[in-house]
Batch of 2 targets.
Target 1
Amino acid sequence: MKIAIGNDHAGTDYKNSISNYLQSEGYEVINYGTDSEESVDYPDFVHPVADDVENAKVDFGIIICGSGNGANMTANKHQKVRSALCWTKEITALAREHNDANVLSIPARFTSEPQALEMVKTFLTTKFEGGRHQRRVEKIACS
């Protein structure tokens, strides 16, 4: 499975931790994030992740910024992206089960690294339930 990951300066440590975990589990990771804590503009690192998800070059995306909001808003500008801003593994599970989220947005300043890793594990192992949720997901994109 292929995962694209992007982050701004607030998410560098988280990105490194998550990337190391993913690689240790056999995932292929494409890193679009900054490797510095020097201030950068999050859209520059999120759009490439969303492009890869939208064009089916990867299975999922993970994006990280301070609040998770800016990254999430940026990713959701892409028509085939359903990015979910999550801060617990329970919300992460629901984002996959009910919304078929294909990008996980992590708020680095409001979660711990262990929490973020648990959310990533949950995101990648939780399946979309389909059923009544499929109809709703089909209504999300603007045509």
Target 2
Amino acid sequence: MVRPVIERRLTEACERLQRLRTELVVIEEQLEHLVAAAEDARVRALVSETAQSGGEHRDAERHAAAMERHRNDIVKNIARLEATQDDLLDRMSFDGR
């Protein structure tokens, strides 16, 4: 692979990693909030024992689970991009010899 192509791909990977890491920080804050909300809803459902509070608890748990899946996807994407970045750096150092 030609050095300018490798450099361009490295730049793109770096920019994408920055965006994903920023997004991960936001997602983790949201996840923390959603988990706390789900726990609050669980306690309210136990205390009130109504169908409505049980539904609210299930909804809150589903939201928290969906956010956790999204977080896991972002973490996987970050790991893939880091591996791609490492590969590109290896290619660049190999081509530079």
